[in-house]
């Protein structure tokens, strides 16, 4: 079943894993109000983009025991400042945002790019699913 609101969803989950782009609509999508809806035993994971979670609200929620922990690999300010309050919290695990930099992903990206170039040179074809701003075509 679908939750009617984000707040209703947050009240029932054990882990919130964020996978959305940072847009005006998703900036600070998770703030104090949303974090207060979560269970004290829940965790939040952001491997999407910094700025989706209000980091100050998150640091307060973690420090107050409002949620159990956070796993983050992206921050509103990149690189994050050394005085970010999240660094002082033992309930935070932070990693570099480099999942796309594995040897396998680099080979795949190169193959995909080469395939796009060859397709265009062969018959002027463009993979529409790979074009972000289709209106410029």
Report on this model:
It is a single chain. By secondary structure, the protein is an alpha/beta fold. Helix content is 31%, strand content 11%. The chain has helices at residues 6-12, 32-37, 55-63, 103-123; strands spanning 15-18, 43-46, 69-72, 92-94. It has a four-stranded parallel sheet, with no helix packed on it. Strand 1 (15-18), helix 2 (32-37) and strand 2 form a beta-alpha-beta unit. The protein is elongated. It starts with 5 loop residues before the first helix and ends in a 14-residue tail after the last helix. The mean pLDDT is 90.
Secondary-structure element string: HEHEHEEH
How would the global form be characterised?
A: elongated
Assembly context of the chains: single chain
* Uncertain stretches of 5 or more adjacent residues: none
Radius of gyration: 19 Å
* Biggest sheet details: 4 strands, parallel
Separation of the first and last Cα atoms: 40 Å
Strand content: 5-15%
Q: Averaging pLDDT over every residue, what do you get?
A: 90
Share of residues in helices = 25-40%
> Order of strands across the widest beta sheet?
1-2-3-4
Main structural class: alpha/beta
Secondary structure: number of strands:
4
Number of helices: 4
Descriptive terms for the model:
137 residues; 4 strands; four-stranded parallel sheet; single chain; alpha/beta; elongated
């Amino acid at each position: 079943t679908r939750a009617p609101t984000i707040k209703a969803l947050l009240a029932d989950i054990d882990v919130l894993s964020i996978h959305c782009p940072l847009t005006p609509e998703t900036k600070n999508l998770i703030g104090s109000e949303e974090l207060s809806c979560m269970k004290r035993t829940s965790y939040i994971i952001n491997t999407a983009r910094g700025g989706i979670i209000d980091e100050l609200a998150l640091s307060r929620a973690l420090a107050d025991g409002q949620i159990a922990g956070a796993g983050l690999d992206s921050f509103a300010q990149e690189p994050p400042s050394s005085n970010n309050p999240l660094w002082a919290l033992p309930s935070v695990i932070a990693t570099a945002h480099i999942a796309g930099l594995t040897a396998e992903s680099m080979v795949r990206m190169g193959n995909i790019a080469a395939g796009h170039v060859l397709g265009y040179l062969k018959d002027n074809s463009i993979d529409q699913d790979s074009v972000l701003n289709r209106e410029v075509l």
